[in-house]
Structure formats: C-alpha cells, structure tokens
Amino acid sequence: MAKTIPMIITNSDILVKEKDSDEFKAFQLPSIQDIPNIPFYHIFAERIAESQYYFKEFMKELYGKKLSKYILAIIVPDDTSKLESIFINEFFVNSGACKAVAQMPMALALSKEDNNYISISKSQRNVILEYIKDREIIVKKQYNADTCTPMQILRDAKVVHIDVEYDDIPVYVNNFNLNMDDYLEMGEIIGKKRFLQKIAQIDVEKL
Length: 207
Known about the structure:
The protein is of the alpha/beta class. It has six helices and ten strands; from the N terminus they run βββααβαββββααββα. The chain has helices at 42-46, 48-63, 82-93, 150-157, 162-166, 192-199; strands at residues 3-9, 14-17, 24-27, 70-76, 100-105, 116-122, 126-133, 136-144, 171-174, 188-190. Strand 2 and strand 3 (24-27) form a beta hairpin. The two termini are 17 Å apart.
C-alpha cells in the first residue's frame, strides 16, 4: 500500500513532512525572485526540468531513493486556480519524486471535528472567505488583498450562507503565513504549529 507524505505549498515555499518525525522541512528552488501577487511556484514552469531535478533530490534526502511508493498529499492555498492545480499535479507527478499526488485546499484542513465552519485566509493575492460543510466547500468568495477591508469580510461572513444566519457556526482564521493581523478577532486562530499538527497524519482517501 502506498504511503502518504503530507506537503504544504505556502506563500513562499514548500514544506514536506520528514520521514521519521512530525517536523516539516522547507524546499526552495535556488535563485527564485519574488514577484508581487504571483505564487512563487509559477517560476517552476520557466525552469521545469531544473525545478523537478532539485525537488527529486530534496525528496531523496528525506525519504531515500525508492520514491515511487509514496503519494504526496498536497495542501494548497485557498485561492489556487483550476489551472494552477493542474500544473501542481503535473509538476510533482512528472518529477519522479512520487507515485501519485492528491490535493486539498488549506480551508478543508482547518478542522477535523466540525461538520461545518467558516474559514478566513489570505494568500499573496486574495483574502478568501469559505463556508465548509461535510468536508466540502459550499461557498467561496475571494477579495483583492490590497483593497478589501476586515469590515467587509466580517459583514459577508455573517451572511455567506443561510446556515450561518440561523446557526452558531465556528469561524477559523488561518494565520499559517502570519499575515492575518487585521482578522484575528473574527474567530479561532489556527497558527502554523497547530496547522502542522493537524496535517501530520493525512488520510489520502479523504483528499
């Protein structure tokens, strides 16, 4: 049976769980230049052979040479587009660093206990408001991170779905990237340490 490796694409790097611990190690492609509002991994497409080589070597250091028995369980930013999602799948599958990949947006990993909840997160580009029910994204709204206001997000969060208007729905603020200072009072904070603890063991069948 294939083994699962939890992995997170953050706003600035890729975090991969180490083989024999719940710690995560960062992978960064050498000499990547930060471009405002553009996810860093877009550069991988310009240097695809080089990027895949470095990533495979990185994975060999963590998991040895027999990488074909592993599935990468990839947690992606909440505003990852369908086209970006396809590229992410193709990039890692074709890197030779795994048998297969499975993806899940960060919002779906915030709680394993609640049947429904609201997620608020922020990427390089957007603030993302989502209503999650039964491990599915029911409503998703994206706002320009440079122009939206916390008041706008708070107002919309109260009416994002009819369930929210009539039930007491928990709100989780995803502060994994330490960029949610303006939103900390809107709900329960999920910081980096707590998030990593939640995904250290992932059932790939649920992705």
